[in-house]
Amino acid sequence: MRNGKNVLGSDRIMFGLGSFFLMAIIAAGCGDGTIEARSGASVSQMQGAVTDEADMDCLVVLRSVSRIPNGPGYETTCDLGIDSGGSCLYVWEGFVDLSSERAGAMGPVEVLVRTSMSQGEWFAVETKRMGESEGYVHYSFLIASHTPAAGMSMTSLNRTTIDLIPLVHGPDGQLIWDHNRIDDPLGSYHLNLDNMWSLDDDAAVCMPAVVTEPEYVLSYPDFAETLVDGPVQAGGTVKVRYDGRRLRETQPCMGSHGPVSATTVMMGWAFDGNHNDIHNTQVEFYAEKYGYLCQGEEPCIEGKIDEPVIDIPQGTQSMEMWFYCVPSFSSTGNLYFDSNWGQNYRLDVVDSSRTVDWAGNWELHAARSSFRFDLPEPYVYTGFTNMGYSI
Known about the structure:
Helix content: under 10%
Strand content: 25-35%
Structural class: mainly beta
Radius of gyration: 23 Å
Mean pLDDT: 74
Number of strands: 25
Low-confidence stretches: 1-21, 23-50, 255-259, 351-391
Shape: globular
Largest sheet: 7 strands, mixed
Distance between the termini: 49 Å
């Protein structure tokens, strides 16, 4: 779909695009007509589908895919505890949406993948359901095989390519392929050096109608906490907008060369005080890049700002959250928190508006604006703990 228009004019082709696409895959890369399976019986269903559809009406759509940041580098299978035969392979994470309106009649959502390390063969990757909001069921997936290994030469890494395409199994056994951002009837999403092996969300494609949702804004330099368009309601969502300078300029949240060198700011949260069920996500990432990664003067800065949208479970009465940074040179456990001995930011989940207060009551907002002058002894920012983790 391009701005509401069907690219090819028809979204259902008997023995059509999907079948031809699969046949082309088998002919091109799988000489014996098989696909390496990570999703069990789904492979035989792919090969046996009698009708296929090319979805250009926002049923199933790839949102984004990229390597998972880990400080100045990226996560590998060894970091994530994934068995990859003794090698530490880089891992890609992607996100796929399925229309809530039609999801009940659909089968599994999968992603078909081929890399420059898979000998031309395609393999199916399972997805994991994450939640539902704004008219879509959200899924995530990992590409953790046939990918480059950590320590691979730059020349070999630069030649890496990854092709992928999401699909959903229809109610009648047909395969429905995501072509909402692909014009070529036999095309797929393509990752290579030119796009830094990543694909970002496209705000012009298959986006839900604008819905006002609460936003919890933790701003800088005023160090204010504001709930916008509240209240936060059980069964709804809340977007969190955290300005990482609150941590970067008041805690040693910096890499070895400066305040935006190889640091990551994370958010943690829990519902109703249940610290046995803690969630975490990245809100900011900065790293210095050199060499082929820069398209100009070195070093160049890679930065990513995330504003996570948190699903609030039904029956929830409160949500608490905290923020922490991971400097590139830190050892395990050397984390620095925007939280005062577990006194985290807290939002009541209610049916009426409320006042948002500073949770930690640190008082020295002005002093926390930088390290240009000494802090009074009672408020030196060392020795804090949060959720039992030592700083």
